[in-house]
Write a structure and sequence with these properties.
The chain has 350 residues and is of the alpha+beta class. It has 15 helices and 10 strands. The strands form 3 sheets. It has a 5-stranded mixed β-sheet with strand order 3-4-2-1-5. Strands 6-8-7 form a 3-stranded antiparallel β-sheet. It is globular and about 60 Å long. It starts with a helix and ends with a helix.
């Protein structure tokens, strides 16, 4: 009995879907041991297609409506997930205060062991997550969601809202790229946005981190950004030509009008801070609403100003979250986590 190429392709497609469903169920196993959440996604090395290292921590972001209430419930269920100092000194209230007032609203519990696997999960208020995704308020979680993630729970349709975040990421990356570049260069530039100014990159991160993320997850980046790239192409902002490999060569118009269009696609918080440096002009819309536009004198000036704004955001957020993490997870876990990071950084340098 002959088997057609279509039957083979169908069988491979079914197998791939089955494996993906199995992987998703495996990643969702942690949620069975936690209070309910509004949003959950997995990010980082756990999503690498060839990652079979069970000793690597699987990273989660959990969105909840009320962090203090959630931590209170979780302390009853999983007291051992938290540093004993935080539990005894103030419990859920202190955990939430440290995250909000010292950090950027995210509390991480690292080195959580469930069924012989190691997890790290960060808990954030849904309002704060939405603000960061739409406006780059702290550019902490929005930066993570500009890279491939596996969404496991999404009660408020953050996946749809994130398209605004991805569009801003493309616009920011295009401002910093030359007239001609590859798809890999584009994704690397997008990936690097949330590391600009990150203090950990100086001593506690793999210096080749961005390159590795993009090379290993290239297909996932393509899936994320293809619809938006096609939209930019339809508007005439980008032109695509094929290459020898599986990625396109991209050309962009570097004229002033396009630069102004890219700036207008950035989140409002970034535009506002750029306007404070470059100046703003206002006009009334047909509905009577005041529209503020950043004064863009040259593409280079706009790119450099945006780079400075993002670098400062990342520097402040990474510093605040680092201090918050040291306080929240306790001395032993803090040293353990930092040692793991520095070991990776040392290997990349040597």
């Amino acid at each position: 009995m002959e088997v057609s190429i279509f039957q083979i392709l169908h069988a491979l497609s079914v197998l791939s879907m089955s494996m993906e469903k199995e992987k998703k169920a495996e990643l969702a196993s942690l949620l069975k041991f936690l209070p309910p959440v509004e949003f959950c996604c997995v990010y980082g090395s756990a999503l690498h297609p060839n990652n079979y290292n069970k000793s690597t921590m699987v990273d989660y972001i959990l969105g909840v409506s009320d962090p203090m209430q959630w931590h209170s419930q979780n302390l009853k269920m999983n007291r051992d997930h938290y540093a004993s100092s935080m539990v005894y000194l103030g419990g859920a209230k202190l955990i939430t205060q440290v995250a909000d007032e010292i950090g950027v609203g995210v509390h991480f519990n690292p080195f959580v062991s469930v069924n012989d696997e190691m997890f790290k999960y960060g808990v954030v208020r849904m309002h704060d997550l939405v603000e960061d995704v739409l406006n780059w308020e702290t550019f902490y979680l929005s930066g993570r969601l500009q890279k491939p993630v596996q969404v496991l729970v999404d009660n408020l349709d953050i996946g749809n809202l994130n398209s605004v975040n991805l569009k801003g990421a493309i616009s920011a990356a295009l401002l910093l790229l030359p007239a001609k570049f590859t798809e890999e260069h584009l994704y690397a530039k997008i990936c690097s946005l949330s590391y600009m100014g990150d203090l950990r990159m100086l001593f506690a991160e793999d210096r080749n981190k961005v390159k590795k993320i993009v090379q290993v997850q290239f297909d996932l980046f393509q899936t994320m950004y293809k619809p938006l790239l096609e939209e930019y192409g339809a508007k005439g902002l980008l032109r695509f030509s094929s290459s020898d490999g599986h990625q396109a060569i991209i050309s962009q118009d570097c004229g002033l009008s396009v630069a102004r269009s890219l700036v207008s696609s950035l989140p409002s918080k970034v535009r506002s801070q750029m306007g404070m440096k470059l100046g703003e002009k206002t006009k009334l819309s047909e509905s009577g609403r005041v529209i503020r536009k950043v004064v863009v004198g040259s593409r280079e000036e706009a790119a450099e100003c945006m780079r400075g704004v993002l670098r400062r955001k990342v520097m402040v957020s990474s510093a605040r979250q680092a201090v918050s993490g040291l306080v929240a997870v306790g001395g032993v876990n803090a040293i353990r986590y930092l040692a793991n990071k520095m070991e990776k950084a040392w290997k990349s340098w040597t």
